[in-house]
Amino acid sequence: MLQIEALLREYDRARAYTDDLWRDLTPDEVTWRPHENSSAIGWHLGHQAHVAHFMIRNLTAAEPSPDPELDGLMDSANPEKFRGTLPTVKRLTEFRETVADRVHARIGDIAAGRVGAPAQLIVVATHLLTTLVNHEYQHDQWISEVRAGDLGHALPPDPDSEHLRRIDGYLVVDVL
Question: Which Pfam families match (predicted)?
Answer without folding.
Answer: DinB_2 (PF12867)
